[in-house]
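As a point of orientation, let us examine one representative protein, giving the amino acid sequence and backbone structure tokens.
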Amino acid sequence: MKLKAGWMLTELSDEYIAVPTGESAEGFRGIVRLNETGKDVFQGLLDGLTEAQIAEKLLERYDGIDRQGAEMAVKRVVDLLKKEGLLTE
């Protein structure tokens, strides 16, 4: 899965916001609000990482999370983005 082109990730106050730009803004009206983990997953997708690579980064970043928890966190965010039509094969 890859994130469609034309997304920008920014921090606003204590939240992370993904904003569509260019053609993505024409197809998606709104913003995506993310927590810290969601931001990490979104950034990984922006960087072209696979879901497994993103889960590995979560394991490196967060204490107290195991591989299964990291993979589930990635899957939840990816499923949400899929549902909203933000991902391509």
